[in-house]
TrEMBL record:
The lineage of its organism: Bacteria, Pseudomonadati, Myxococcota, Polyangia, Polyangiales. Residues 168-298 form the AAA+ ATPase domain. It comes from Chondromyces crocatus. This is Chromosomal replication initiator protein DnaA. Residues 380-449 form the Chromosomal replication initiator DnaA C-terminal domain. It holds the Pfam family Bac_DnaA. Signal peptide: none annotated. It comes from the Bacteria. Transmembrane segments: none annotated.
């Protein structure tokens, strides 16, 4: 859903009026240090005088403000902060709402030839807005993207790549497993740029489509047209699933030169993959190096709170009445990826409409149980912790303690790795299960064991023994 600029300002002012009612005196004191910059596609841009004001407003007023905006627009609202001691129009000092003129897009006056009898009279000519990029999903916008610890960096980097503030990285390399939101972010970037700069030349392609275009250009002797399209007539290049260029040496060569040409012109490049650049197989080293020039932002399996928020957001989009207990149950049962989570919700809604039954907890449990594989996963984080402790002759409390002895730390890293690989838990969830450790600590441990498994036969033997034990227990 796109809201005109003048309507967006009205939405914000209504939300501010609602928020001020909580405590008018306190509101006026703190919002004298806050300025409204923009509200576009679910991203609220606020300018604050200092970090103290930021923290107070964020902790005391922001939940009410963003909830009201969500109620008025249906957007999932995120906030982009900017520190600026010299505010021009603090919110609390505005006595009236200043109307914001919408950007003229559709019509413009065109003079007609001067008649003999007097001055020219203007007429209106329709200015056709260029069509949006091909294959863009209208629902994949920033407003509909649910942000959590597992995808926060990628989301912020995508907003910056679309010109929404913050440091812009070029290229932006977004990596993560299937169905976690990489394509959603790429589409959101295109939607934002198209909304803000409709004249921008945006190209969104999969690696497979780029390859097919390249082959067609060779077959029909149209390489000049191909290179003009991708190198000269392109302001924003979005390439999905770059890993599918693996082994295609000639296509990689062409993409390498395309990348260089756009990068030299400071044209934004965004690439997605299911692997980190250094893990891409049969990919030229010079391409891998260039993918790491800007920012590599990964998306992990969302933690429980984010999964529940995703279910609620999808239900709101599709008009599905969903209770909190059903949303929580779906978030607990579907851990693998966002696509499966949303697909399960749609399937429940479809079955509900056919049978006339409400989507309540009993209905959800019955349907998910009926469609689960015969051998559903039965092991838990605690099972893995027990197996690891038994294997390495440790106490059950050692893995969650602060003990950093080498043998304990290694066993803890192995347990974290197994939780990630077998249960598909998010890094924050694993961190909480291992003594409330930070998700970055878990991420580092998992990557360390992944590397050692490939290079150290002893580590590989430990893992194989544990995996055999866990498989037997299922």
């Amino acid at each position: 859903m796109t809201i005109p600029k003048h309507d967006v300002r009205e939405v914000f002012d209504r939300a501010i009026e609602h928020t001020r009612r909580l405590s008018p005196a306190t509101f006026d004191q703190w919002f004298g240090g806050v300025q409204f910059d923009d509200l576009t596609d679910g991203v609220l841009s606020l300018r604050v005088q200092n970090e103290f004001v930021l923290e107070w407003v964020r902790d005391n007023f922001l939940p009410t403000l963003t909830e009201k905006i969500r109620e008025l627009t249906g957007w999932s609202v995120q906030v982009a902060w900017t520190l600026d001691p010299a505010l021009v129009t603090p919110i609390a000092q505005r006595s009236e709402v200043a109307p914001v003129r919408p950007r003229p897009i559709a019509l413009r006056p065109v003079p007609t030839p001067v008649p003999a009898s007097g001055p020219p009279s203007p007429r209106l000519e329709v200015v056709r807005r260029p069509p949006p990029p091909d294959e863009m999903n209208p629902k994949h916008t920033f407003a509909n993207f649910v942000v959590g610890p597992s995808n926060q960096l990628a989301h912020a980097a995508a907003i910056a790549a679309a010109g929404g503030g913050g440091r812009r990285y070029n290229p932006l390399f977004i990596c993560g497993g299937t169905g976690l939101g990489k394509t959603h972010l790429v589409h959101a970037i295109a939607h934002r740029v198209y909304e803000e700069r409709p004249e921008a030349r945006i190209i969104y392609v999969s690696a497979e489509r780029f390859t097919n275009d390249f082959i067609t250009a060779i077959q029909h002797h149209r390489m000049d047209d191909f290179r003009t399209k991708y190198r000269q007539s392109c302001d924003l290049l979005l390439v999905d699933d770059i890993q599918f260029l693996a082994g295609r040496e000639q296509t990689q060569e062409e993409f390498f030169h395309t990348f260089n040409a756009l990068h030299a012109l400071d044209r934004q490049i965004v690439v997605t993959s299911d692997k980190y650049p250094q893990n891409l197989e049969r990919m030229e080293e010079r391409l891998v190096s260039r993918f790491s020039w800007g920012l590599v932002a990964d998306i992990q399996v969302p933690e429980l709170e984010t999964r529940v928020a995703i279910v609620r957001n999808k239900a709101a989009q599709e008009g599905i009445v969903l209770s909190d207990d059903v949303a929580l149950y779906l978030g607990q049962m579907i851990r693998s990826n966002v696509r499966e989570l949303e697909g399960t919700l749609i399937r429940l809604a479809a079955k509900s409409s056919l049978t006339g039954r409400p989507v309540d907890l009993a209905f959800a449990r019955a349907e998910i149980t009926a469609t689960s594989p015969p051998r559903a996963q039965t092991i838990s984080v605690e099972d893995i912790q027990r197996a690891v402790c038994h294997h390495f002759h440790l106490r059950s409390t050692d893995l969650t303690s602060k003990d950093r002895h080498k043998s304990v730390a290694f066993a803890r890293h192995v347990a974290m790795y197994l939780c990630k690989q077998r249960l598909k838990c998010s890094f924050p969830e694993i961190g909480r299960a291992f003594g409330n450790r930070d998700h970055t600590t878990v991420m580092s441990a998992v990557r360390k064991i992944e590397a050692q498994r490939d290079s150290d036969p002893q580590v590989r033997a430990h893992l194989e023994a544990l995996e055999k034990k866990l498989a037997a227990d299922e």
